[in-house]
Amino acid sequence: SYELTQPLSVSVSPGQTASITCSGDKLGDKYACWYQQKPGQSPVLVIYQDNERPSGIPERFSGSNSGNTATLTISGTQAMDEADYYCQAWDSGTGVFGGGTKLTVL
Amino acid sequence: QVQLVQSGAEVKKPGSSVKVSCKASGGTFSSYSISWVRQAPGQGLEWMGRIIPILGIGNYAQKFQGRVTITADKSTSTAHMELSSLRFEDTAVYYCAREVVVAARQGNYYFDYWGQGSLVTVSS
Hints:
The complex is a heterodimer of chains A (106) and B (124). Chain A has 106 residues and is mainly beta. Chain A has strands at 9-12, 18-23, 33-37, 44-47, 61-66, 69-74, 83-91, 94-97, 101-105. In chain A, strands 1, 3, 4, 7, 8 and 9 form a six-stranded mixed β-sheet that branches. In chain A, strand 3 and strand 4 (44-47) form a beta hairpin. Chain B is an all-beta fold. The chains are: A mainly beta (106), B mainly beta (124).
């Protein structure tokens, strides 16, 4: 079955750029989404179709996807961005999530 | 304003079944697929399957084949997920999520709205 691999944790200082990667076989041939989840809350879509932002998501969130890696980039990271982030893609009609990355802003 | 409102928490015994509901409002129910995603305590998200209400067709993750049934009632704009033969490791928060299709053939879908989650605890 298809697998997506994310780092367990990423740390960033306020105002700096955070990058979270998501690796999967030929992931660049698929479309990647990213979801943010804060403790006790439902996930929220932050990036879809590799690099599109839903309305209401700040411009500091961006995405890319090429080769075997999709990347979520948060520019000018704020304390409110501290959360778990999950990449997600579809493989043969089946949804697949990465294991999640805990972003710490310190 | 689209909302997905799920049924409440359940406590079930091993070997039994649970049925979780997800009532949609504020949108055209039949126009979107509904997926179910679960999250065990302290763990990540896991896709279980989906239903296409207008067709009444579901497809499921291989892991759950034979144990999960996802249905949709267009008259009440409600999707249901039933999981049978419950095990302790099925203890999790179960979410429904509305699926937007950008390009089906290219596998370009995303979840734009999520329910609040329903905690299912499997305990003897």
